[in-house]
Request: fold
Amino acid sequence: MPEPRIDDVAAAAGVHRSTVSRAFSKPEAVRPETREHVLKVAAELGYSMSPLAQALRRRVSNLVPLIVPDITNPFFAELAHTTAAAARRQGYQLILCLTDGDQSLTSKYLDSVHSMYSPFGIIAPSTPVDLESLRRDAFDNRVVVIDRVNSDYSVPTVTVDSAHGIDLAFEHLSSLGHTEIAYAPGIVGTNTAYDRRKAYQRAASMRDVKPQVLGSTHTADIGSEVVDDWLDSAQRPTAVIASNDAIAFAVIAEFSTRNIRVPEDVSVVGFDGLDLGAHFNPRLTSVKQPIEAMGEISIQLGEKLMNGETAEHIMLEPTLLVRSSTGEVTS
Amino acid sequence: MPEPRIDDVAAAAGVHRSTVSRAFSKPEAVRPETREHVLKVAAELGYSMSPLAQALRRRVSNLVPLIVPDITNPFFAELAHTTAAAARRQGYQLILCLTDGDQSLTSKYLDSVHSMYSPFGIIAPSTPVDLESLRRDAFDNRVVVIDRVNSDYSVPTVTVDSAHGIDLAFEHLSSLGHTEIAYAPGIVGTNTAYDRRKAYQRAASMRDVKPQVLGSTHTADIGSEVVDDWLDSAQRPTAVIASNDAIAFAVIAEFSTRNIRVPEDVSVVGFDGLDLGAHFNPRLTSVKQPIEAMGEISIQLGEKLMNGETAEHIMLEPTLLVRSSTGEVTS
DNA sequence: TCCTCAAATGCAACCGATCTCACAATCGAT
DNA sequence: ATCGATTGTGAGATCGGTTGCATTTGAGGA
Reply:
């Protein structure tokens, strides 16, 4: 048997199409008894509305795109995870769009979902978003960006307070006696990468620590670059703050490969606070981003956007997750 | 300006709607000159077809669901990555559906995408799929399963040869002098978990190794269970094969926490061959699943399915990725 | 009992495309 | 020149709902 359509339900319930439609999508517009009857008949027939047809007529769908550069990066995986959950809770279906770092794909995806009448979209960029093109491309600006945005305050954003995060890391390391604290930057380009690095510089000078940035050329193997620089350093840092957990993993792996022990010889703290870090060796101390909140809030901002409210800029506070990759300085 | 519709293009080009439609979706049915003219006019207007309207009328969309239990598990992340790429290449838009281990969500998702006229769906289950319900639920059986299927050969599947994978691990460990080789199973339930464990038992007995399965109660912390069992073992295994990389990570982290060194005190080999393992400490030796091929082939099987071809069962061969978590036995 | 007005329902156009069928133009063959 | 077979285009129903407007229903008041 084919799927029942709205007319089948209408016939079976002895009412008109439009009444069935209202029974589902505008409950207050129909008499309670009628509504119940229609719903019962519909249930008996195993009827459910076609989201496609709805979207076509209403010009609004429940498909919300989340655009991320790389799902293979556990940070984005966790973000996708929490955002999908938040989306589902609100009745949206999250569409995960993977750009693989290809800028042009972003606007392509945006076009594509726009033509599916998405109510809004969420972008977690790897490189600065070209907002000019976003706006023009589509979507009437109904885009939420996870990360700061340079030039344009009309786009709502959710970010994490990098400066505070870095401060937490410094504080922790200082309390363990570290005074030579270096920084391992990630891929440049994003605002967060920039913010964190900046925050490192500031925090270092505030504490009379000589800023040392390790491995800035960014070839394929970040880990060995960082460790090379560390070894070459006149005054070897006793601690390294990585700009994110993935970098921290790579750095620790490389230290270990060269028989430099973490945290005995050098402490490492990450930035992300991924669950995965709890099963790393050693278990990774890290600045924890409130990823769950980020997902939740992105959806909320999106909904405000579609209600025509003005752009908000939410900044979330990170916390410190102390595990085993940091220890007292021994010298 | 509102988005142009097909009638706008038709008017501007001086032809009928249907001709425009054909110019796009059935090129051979329209005179070349007409076609070119229509396409040019459409381009000038910045016109593109509404996928929603298309899907509604054709009763086929380009939305392909990939249902996975947990994107936070890097295996599924890599799978999603490659499958999304393969899907895009064929003009599909992958919809990632996260079940979080909630069985009932699977059929919900299936219903949902079915009503969006998905041509087929892909399921990478964490627990055995209830095919009865899948079939009945929706989709006319147009589902590809990544993992074996027990009861039903009418569903196409793509699997990896677990037995061979385990053999590779054994071979490698044997060549390093290991004779006490234990196994750390993952979450039970999936066929792959079952297959791998079975394969371990068989491979062990074939090589006169006493099978030792570590940590089978499966509380929250698998790592410490495994290590507890390892410590309690009368004859401590010199090597552990983990049923997947995530388990291997957890086990190594726990070994290390208790000051047991990998690979000096015990070798560990994983199963998945994730890129992430290359940045683990120590870099993880692992049986590598051909994840890229799995994604690609799932899409292909799906396409065959929608063309009415009969179900195929593809089995892929794993390879061994030798890194640094295994070493010669020292006793 | 009749009238009024609001609430509930029916009617029919519409969202943006596809597709079957009918019709016109073109062509080769007789 | 006539005719049947192709080929290309137009007409209009259709996919499965939504929605503004018209109409019916029913409660309350005179």
Observations:
- Residues 60-160+291-316 of chain A form a domain with the Rossmann fold fold (CATH 3.40.50.2300).
- Residues 74-89 of chain A form the longest helix (16 residues).
